[in-house]
């Protein structure tokens, strides 16, 4: 059985001092690699944060080298192969691919969490052991991690003064809006408004909730698929800077489908007028949500956004009712 499998994981309390030191050595090296990965990820849009991450990686490697020297003095040159995943209960690191696509604020928060987790682990571990030498070793490691935390604060003050951080945050916000909010909002508007006419025309023409539900599902899902592929194929993001076409297509497709499903699903209720009243209430909430998103992320005055959305939605809604009653 491989050492990295769950069944082969050892408890931290069963490690001897050499293995604890080897674990600290590998952990410091892993953290340095994580910092360098994040630095490469944000270099283009946030160079100051990338410089800070590179400096923190360099500091982690300095601690790594000091731990290696300590190991050589106490135990010799042969360092046991032991990593975080080999030890039950040892603090884990999130895979970089789960974090690196979530924006600069998420990466900064992850950095803080990394240092705090390492420090807290060593402090708690030192309190649980009885051997004086082992406790001193764990205390030294806790002190080193506390030093990392202070270093991170100092590096942030050096590389991210207020004006630089504001610029990077503004750039990150703009990228978030271009990649997620804008296509998602377009999808929500399309799904909420364009499906009003077919759904309510069917509802008033048939007064059959099951037929209306099926038409609503078809219109919503079909519009979501179409909108998603259209957005993804319209621009690869390399020139416009709008970001990943997959992300934009996903945002547009999902929000388009949700916009239509919101007022289609009430027709699961078999009573026509009750289902219709609930669907109308959902439409009202959808239109005001669209106006709020425009105000929140697009800096469109709320009243103007509300008038535009409500007016357009009301016209489509009225058209659906008139056609259904024709």
Topology:
Blueprint (H helix, E strand, L loop, with lengths): L9 E2 L5 H26 L4 H29 L11 E2 L7 H4 L4 H25 L3 H28 L2 H33 L1 H11 L2 H26 L10 H20 L7 H27 L3 H24 L1
Parallel strand pairs: 1-2
Helix pairs in contact: 1-2, 1-4, 1-5, 2-5, 4-5, 6-8, 6-9, 6-10, 6-11, 7-8, 7-11, 8-9, 9-10, 10-11
Tally of structural domains: 2
Estimate the helix proportion, in percent.
Answer: over 70%
Largest sheet: 2 strands, parallel
The average pLDDT score comes to: 79
Q: Judging from the principal axes of the Cα atoms, what is the shape?
A: elongated
Distance between the termini: 73 Å
Query: Regions with pLDDT < 50 over 5+ consecutive residues?
Result: 1-6
Proportion in β-strands = under 5%
- Can you list the strand order of the major beta sheet? 1-2
Q: List SSEs in N-to-C order.
A: EHHEHHHHHHHHH
Number of helix segments?
A: 11
Radius of gyration: 28 Å
Care to describe what's here?
The chain has 2 domains: 6-160, Ferritin, core subunit, four-helix bundle (Ferritin), CATH 1.20.1260; 169-325, no CATH class. Helices cover 78% and strands 1% of the residues. The chain contains 11 helices and 2 strands, in the order E-H-H-E-H-H-H-H-H-H-H-H-H. A two-stranded parallel ribbon has the order 1-2. Helix 6 (162-194) crosses helix 8 (209-234) and helix 10 (272-298) runs antiparallel to helix 11 (302-325). The N and C termini lie far apart (73 Å).
Please provide a brief summary of the model.
Helix 2 (47-75) runs antiparallel to helix 5, helix 6 (162-194) packs across helix 8 and helix 10 packs antiparallel against helix 11 (302-325).
């Amino acid at each position: 059985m491989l050492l990295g499998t769950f069944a082969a994981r050892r408890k931290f309390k069963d490690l001897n001092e050499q293995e604890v030191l080897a674990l600290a050595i590998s952990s410091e090296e892993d953290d340095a690699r994580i910092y360098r990965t994040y630095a490469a990820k944000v270099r283009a849009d946030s160079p100051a944060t990338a410089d800070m991450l590179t400096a923190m990686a360099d500091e982690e490697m300095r601690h790594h080298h000091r731990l290696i020297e300590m190991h050589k003095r106490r135990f010799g040159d042969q360092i046991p192969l032991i990593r975080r995943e080999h030890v039950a209960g040892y603090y884990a690191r999130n895979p970089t691919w789960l974090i690196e696509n979530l924006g600069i604020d998420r990466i900064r928060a992850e950095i803080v969490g990394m240092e705090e987790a390492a420090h807290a682990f060593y402090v708690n571990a030192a309190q649980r052991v009885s051997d004086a030498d082992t406790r001193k070793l764990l205390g030294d490691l806790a002190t080193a991690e506390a030093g990392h935390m202070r270093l991170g604060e100092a590096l942030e003050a050096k590389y991210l003064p207020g004006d630089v951080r504001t610029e990077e945050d503004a750039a990150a916000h703009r990228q978030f809006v271009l990649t997620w909010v804008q296509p998602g909002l377009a999808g929500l508007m399309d799904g909420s408004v364009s499906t009003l006419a077919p759904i309510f025309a069917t509802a008033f023409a048939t007064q059959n909730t099951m037929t209306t539900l099926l038409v609503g599902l078809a219109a919503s899902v079909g519009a979501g698929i179409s909108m998603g592929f259209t957005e993804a194929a319209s621009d690869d993001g390399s020139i416009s800077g709008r970001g990943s076409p997959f992300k934009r297509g996903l945002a547009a497709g999902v929000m388009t489908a949700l916009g239509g499903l919101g007022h289609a699903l009430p027709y699961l209720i078999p009573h026509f007028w009750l289902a219709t009243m609930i669907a109308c209430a959902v439409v009202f909430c959808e239109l005001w949500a669209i106006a709020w998103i425009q105000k929140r992320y697009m800096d469109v005055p709320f009243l103007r956004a509300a008038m535009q959305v409500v007016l357009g939605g009301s016209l489509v809604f009225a058209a659906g009712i008139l056609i259904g009653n024709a």
